[in-house]
From TrEMBL:
SUPFAM superfamilies with a match to the protein in the record: NAD(P)-linked oxidoreductase
GO CC terms of this entry: cytosol
Name this polypeptide is given: Aldo/keto reductase
Gene3D superfamilies, alphabetized: NADP-dependent oxidoreductase domain (3.20.20.100)
PANTHER family xref list: NAD(P)-LINKED OXIDOREDUCTASE SUPERFAMILY PROTEIN, NADH-SPECIFIC METHYLGLYOXAL REDUCTASE-RELATED
Domain annotation NADP-dependent oxidoreductase: ranges: 15-308
Molecular-function annotations in GO: oxidoreductase activity
Pfam families given in the database record: Aldo_ket_red
Length: 340
């Protein structure tokens, strides 16, 4: 495993992140503690150090399992990322949302479950469209100054909110968001409209969740295998099936699995990207780890780009119009290219 810097920081994390939403057997699915330990062993033995969880995953069981595991291993080796925002207490009206009260309470409970004195990366889990972004960043900065959190990050939030937050943090001397977690894959490229350009501008690392489209891009549904994606899911529409067929064809050509191709595509888009790979079986993780040995050619990337491309809308499509037409505006784009 190679290591990458997480955003505009000196924090070194593995090029793949282990997603632990499936640690625990609540809701009738997931990995028990023994299997979860084996998965983390396999990840660490491969050089992986970046673990992703949340206060709400398996009603806190995911954090508890990680806490028990890390307690008996080198805590400083691991980079633990967790999240706050989603409701975890039905009797407390402030046990959800992005507000400072919920953040402070959630962090204290996460620290207890994780059996650690500090969280390496704290994500705002999902934007509530209520709390002022300055309240979020000031509270995160306070936690960082207290030593309870090392770095701030954000997930599932509009680009304009993140941009406003990081600009305000820079002005005020607060800690900025260094990572952005969003759904991103060959069948979900809409973050390319606003979120990913914003992340590139601020030097943020993107940590895609569902980089395999809920398993669709693994090709298992083409083979008739069952999974957690329901047959009526929009992830199984005709367009996505065509994308998956192209992924499978390239995988067959390279002699690798379709998952390797889909994950490597997500790592090869010209910006800092660390996919989150979930696993409830050791075999799943071991297979996905082989991704780091796969190389996609320019021709492969072009095929995948063509079959999965989206309409960027305005102004994205306007900027992408052909050069001849744009040159009618006085050669503006020629001048921009020369400056670049």
């Amino acid at each position: 495993m190679n290591y990458k810097l997480l955003g505009r920081s000196g924090l070194k994390v593995s090029e793949l992140c282990l997603g632990t939403m499936g640690f625990g057997t609540e809701a009738g699915w997931g990995a028990d503690k023994k299997t979860s330990f084996e998965i983390m062993d396999a990840f660490a033995n491969a050089g992986g150090n970046f673990l992703d969880t949340a206060n709400i995953y398996k009603l806190g069981t995911s954090e508890k399992i990680i806490g028990e595991y890390v307690q008996n291993h080198d805590r400083d080796y691991f980079v633990l990322a967790t999240k706050y925002s989603l409701k975890d207490n039905i009797t407390n009206p402030n046990a959800s949302g992005n507000n400072r009260k919920n953040m402070m309470r959630s962090v204290e409970e996460s620290l207890r479950r994780l059996k650690t004195d500090f969280i390496d990366v704290l994500y705002l889990h999902i934007w509530d469209d209520i709390t002022p972004i300055d309240e979020v960043l000031r509270a995160m900065d306070d936690l960082i100054r207290q030593g309870k959190v090392n770095y701030a990050a954000i997930s599932d939030t509009p680009a304009w909110v993140v941009a406003k937050g990081n600009t305000l943090a820079e002005l005020m001397g607060w800690s900025q968001f260094i990572a952005l977690q969003v759904e991103y894959s060959l069948i979900q490229r809409t973050p390319e409209r606003e979120l990913i350009p914003m992340a590139k501008h601020y030097g943020m690392t993107v940590t895609p969740w569902a980089p395999l489209g809920g398993g669709v891009l693994s090709g298992k549904y083409l083979r008739g295998e069952q999974g957690r994606v329901k047959p009526e899911s929009n992830r199984l529409n005709e367009h996505n099936v065509n994308i998956t067929k192209t992924v499978v064809a390239i995988a067959d050509e390279l002699g690798v699995s379709a998952s390797h191709v889909a994950l490597q595509w997500a790592m090869s888009q010209g910006f800092s990207s660390i996919p989150i790979i979930g696993a409830t079986k050791v075999s799943q993780l071991e297979d996905n780890l082989k991704t780091i040995d796969v190389t996609l050619s320019d021709a492969h990337l072009q095929k995948l780009d063509e079959v999965s491309k989206i309409n960027l809308g305005f102004p994205g499509e306007f900027f992408r119009e052909d050069a001849v037409k744009m040159n009618s505006f006085g050669g503006f784009y020629d001048k921009v290219e020369k400056r670049k």
